[in-house]
Specification:
434 Repressor (Amino-terminal Domain), mainly alpha, 0% strand, elongated
Length: 114
């Protein structure tokens, strides 16, 4: 966290947290719509169930590495981008769970041994 004397750390742009994070399924849906490809066509092309594609597009399931690679092969969306989007989304979701954040605050870091 960046700190500047006399400035509230919450008001520094580099310290701001987004109110909404994009699930990689949204990016996949955008690409499918742009290319006029149905979810069913996409699912058949990459060899997965239509329900899996639909759950990912709706943000109900995560994009794993294999799905990201299949998507890259079919649509050209970089797999590493989709995996990074999923990781950022997962972090964003975890930071919004009050019980987890309380647990996180209670953890004391290990001191370096000299």
């Amino acid at each position: 966290m960046i700190e500047i004397e006399g400035v509230d750390p919450q008001m520094i742009a580099n310290n701001l947290k987004p109110n909404h994070m994009t699930h990689p399924g949204e990016a996949i849906l955008d690409e499918l719509e742009y290319l006029h490809i149905s979810q069913k066509q996409f699912a058949e092309q990459i060899g997965v169930s239509c329900s899996l594609v639909n759950q990912i597009i709706k943000g109900k399931r995560p994009v794993n590495t294999e799905f990201a690679l299949l998507t890259e092969a079919a649509l050209g969306l970089p797999a590493d981008m989709l995996v990074r989007m999923q990781a950022r989304y997962d972090l964003w979701k975890a930071e919004r769970k009050p019980s987890f954040m309380e647990k996180l605050k209670s953890i004391k870091p290990f001191a370096a041994a000299l």
